[in-house]
Amino acid sequence: MLKLDLASLIQERDYDGIFALIISKIPLIVTAIIIVVAGAFISRGISKLIVRALVRHKVDPSVHRFISTIVKCIMNLVFILTAFSTLGMNVNSFVAAIAAGGVTAGLGLQQSVSQFASGIQILINHPFRSGDFIDIGSVSGTVKEIRFMYTVLVTIDNKRVVVPNSHITDSNIINFNAEQKRRIDLIYSIAYDADIGKARNAIEKAANNHELIYQDPAPDVAVWEHGQSSINLVCHVWCDSKNYWPVFYYMQEQVKLEFDKEGISIPFNQLDLHITEEALNDKSSD
Questions:
Q1: Is the pLDDT of residue 150 over 60?
Q2: Do the Cβ atoms of 165 and 113 come closer than 8 Å?
C-alpha cells in the first residue's frame, strides 16, 4: 500500500526509493485527482437537478439551499473516499470514525437534532409558508421567516416571536391563510322590542353592499339566541382570506349605521329592580 510503503521508505531515509515510488504511483494519483474533480462537477450538477425538482414540487425556497449543500457535501465525501481507495489507502477506519463522531454528536445534541428535524419537516411538508397568519396555541402571528431550528412570527401588535420548531410540530397549527376564502361569524344584539325583520334586512343590506363580500355563498342572517338583555342575531359572510379584517371592520361599522337609520337600538346589560309595597312599608317603619 502507498501509505505503508512511503512510511517505511521515509523511516529508512531512502530518498531514491521515495522518488521512484511516487513516479510509479503517478497514474493512480492522476486518477484520484480526476475522480475528485469530476466528483465536484457531478455533485454540483446533481444538486442543481434536485433544486429544480424541489421548485417543480413547490417546496419552500428556504429548504433549497440546505438540501443542495447536503447533497454536494455527501457526494464530494464519497468521491474523496473513492480517490483514497484508488491510491490503496484503507478508508474503513475513516468511515468508522465519521460514524462514531456522528453518534456522539447526536447523543450530545438531542434537543438541537430534534429542532433541526422539526425544521426539515416544516420546510418539506409546509403546513404554513412565509406570510401566513398562524395560531399554535401559545402564540399567533404572521410567519416572517422559517429557519431549520426556529420560526419567526410577528404578532398583530408587531412583536417579534422566535418559536422553536419542535414546539410547532408538537402543537395544533391553525393556518388562517391556507384556504382561499374564510367565513366571518358576526353577532349583533337588538332589544327585545325591536323588529327582527328590520334588523335582519339592515344586516343583509350592509353585507350586500361591499365588493369584498362573496354573494356565493350569500350572506346568511338568523336569530342566534335569546340573551338576558337582547335578541342576538348571527351573520355569516364569506370573503377572501386576505380580506378578513377589512370586511370584519366594515361590517361592524356599517351595521351600526344601518341600525341607526332604522331606529334599532343595541341594548346594554341592565338590571330591572322591582320594589313591592311591603318592602316600602318595612323601610318606612325602620
A1: yes
A2: no
Cell numbers placing 20 = 521512484
Between 9 and 218, whose confidence is greater?
Answer: 218
Residue with grid cell 388562517, as numbered in its chain: 176
Q: Yes or no: say if 194 and 202 are a contact pair by the CB < 8 Å rule.
A: no
Asked if residue 281 lies in contact with residue 218, where contact means CB atoms within 8 angstroms, the answer is no
DSSP 92-139: HHHHHHHHHHHHHHHHHTHHHHHHHHHHHHHHHH-SS-TT-EEE-SS-
Q: Which three cell numbers stand for residue 168?
A: 410547532
State the amino acid at position 203 in one-letter form: I
- Which residues make beta-bridge pairs with 143? 153
pTM for the full predicted model? 0.56
- 3-class DSSP assignment, residue 181: strand
Burial (CB count <10 Å: 0-12, 13-18, 19+), residue 107: exposed
Sorted by sequence, the CB contacts under 8 Å of residue 182 that are 6+ apart come out as: 176, 238, 239, 240, 241, 244
Query: pLDDT value at position 276?
Result: 65
What pLDDT is attached to residue 95? Answer: 65
Q: Give CA–CA dist 241/179, Å, rounded.
A: 7
Looking only at the bridges linking them, the beta strands covering 160-164 and 133-135 are unpaired
Cα-based distances in Å from 237 to 135, 220, 229, 247, 254: 22, 7, 25, 9, 14
Mean pLDDT of the chain: 80
pLDDT-derived band at 181, boundaries 50, 70, 90 = very high
Taking the C-alpha atoms of residue 233 and residue 221, their distance in angstroms, rounded to an integer, is: 7
Give the number of C-alpha atoms closer than 13 A to the C-alpha of residue 33, restricted to the C-beta side. 6
- 8 A C-beta contact, residue 199 and residue 188: yes
